[in-house]
Amino acid sequence: MTLHSVKRKKYGKDQKRQVKEPVDYNEALFQSEFAAFSIEEVPRHELRSHSMPASVALSLIKQELELDGNPALNLASFVSTRYEDEVRQLCDHVLSVNWIDFDEYPQTVDIHNRCVSMIAHLFHAPVGEAEEGVGTGTVGSSEAIMLAVLAMKWRWRKARRAAGKDASRPNMVMGSEVQVCWEKAMMYFDVEPKYVPLHDDVYVMEPERALELCDENTIGVCGILGTTYTGEFEDIERLDALLTKKNKETGWDIGIHVDAASGGFVAPFVYPNLKWDFALRNVRSINVSGHKYGLAPPGIGWVLWRSAEYLPDELVFHVNYLGADQASFTLNFSRGSAQIIASYYLLLRLGRSGYTTVMRTLKELAEYFADAIVASGRFYLLSDRKSLPLVAFAMPDEDRERVGFDEYALAAELRKRGWIVPAYTLAPKLEHRKLLRVVVRIGFTRDRAEMLLQDIDHTYNHLQHIAGVMRVAQQSIESGAVKASLPPESHHAATGVGKTSGAGDLLEELTADFKHALHAVSARNTRNDTKKNAREHVEVPQKPRVVLGHNGKKTKRSGAVC
Ligand SMILES: Cc1ncc(COP(=O)(O)O)c(C=O)c1O
């Protein structure tokens, strides 16, 4: 008996079994707990009637999350995505610690206070060497900004009431490029926002224009250290000088809040001589996101006040902790403490030299990337060199029409390769300006920059090719060489299987891309004509649009993300 025949005999037996009991044949594959649940519906709206094994729930959720974008390739976000193992270990270690239980977790409170003090000193708060700073940890810069707005409003209102003046119409002055959380803060706390409009080639608030909007009801002016749109720093030193003069002339007492969500952990290390923080007399409060360039995991921000004078005592809730007074000023009560502990780890581990090395390296990488983008000859920069480590770039207006696509099409195409590079429009008044933005964070390397540049180049060429063939298709339709509304048989034409009457020999010469493009343009024409004609009951041929990209829909605020 040959080996072969032995095998055949054995397998023959198995095969017989398989026909009878097909599930048994795949027994090994279906042995896991997860497999047993593989054909079950996963609940979306209601609780399941029964529990499921932990490993199954874990696998189901992990599998679903695989559909999310890859955080490492998410160049849209300022929020950190890479952490040392020690950060993960610490987060796990304090997973069950509720930050608000001051009495039970005094060391956690102490660590929090140390973070506040270190950041206050970093931002030149006028506190003595061994003195604590005034501030608190928050969920992010948004909560920090809400608390700062409340403090400014309360302080202004108290002063107005004390002077017997109307305190019912507070306003705050800010550039129209503020992040959306400012709109929320203004609405939630009933403060009128006075936006300084941007204009062409100026993407940040101009201090002189801000001063023009100030009046006796102004609770403060917001200065941004690194705007969400282009990463540019506003001129806070100039704003401070102008406010000093204005306050002196008018007797007002208008201070500055600096939104340093991203810039707070960049400027002190990359531009140590830049004046933007408490070193300036009128800067009264500052917010910074610990989870952005602070490098901590998502869920931590900080708000600092120049001194206790600028944080009205009525807003602070006092908790008596082991005989000592523990102050609390937050919007919510319970929250995890992992991000606070992770922030302390980072401050302790990196120190000044560590943060300096990281931030300078990121800035250098951003400059390398910016230089290459400009050298491609296809884009110009909107980000300033003296800014956050990010690159905001756009296509020249005349190119968009010429090549037949825009930044939105590029972003969508890059997404297919896994890159998340957002396209958005600038702040109100400059909404016609489209741009792309790459935020350089830890994990972005020279190698990654090269890969992205290569993919941008390929994507650009590919879109240009597609837009080109669509344009030829459109021209063919317009010139009558091809019927404007291809009948269903045009599928044959588009796939090269048959011909449409009236298409002539031209179709023979079309490339595969052209045929698809022709079909797409034609189908769109037919759809548009049908819709329009149905509405207006007249025969109006609709011109196809061949610019690929933004659908022109207006959103309240553009797609700049944080
Ligand atoms: C300038 C600025 N302020 C505030 C925020 C809100 O920060 P967070 O996401 O930490 O709440 C962002 C987010 O990107 C920002 O860029």
From TrEMBL:
It catalyses: L-glutamate + H(+) = 4-aminobutanoate + CO2. GO terms for molecular function: glutamate decarboxylase activity; pyridoxal phosphate binding. Keywords: Decarboxylase, Lyase, Pyridoxal phosphate. The keyword Lyase applies. Its cofactor is pyridoxal 5'-phosphate. It is an enzyme of class 4 (lyase). Pfam families: Pyridoxal_deC. The modification N6-(pyridoxal phosphate)lysine is found at residue 292. One of its GO terms (cellular component) is cytosol. GO terms for biological process: L-glutamate catabolic process. Its EC number is 4.1.1.15. It comes from the Eukaryota. Belongs to the group II decarboxylase family. PANTHER family: GLUTAMATE DECARBOXYLASE. This is Glutamate decarboxylase. The lineage of its organism: Eukaryota, Rhodophyta, Bangiophyceae, Cyanidiales, Cyanidiaceae.
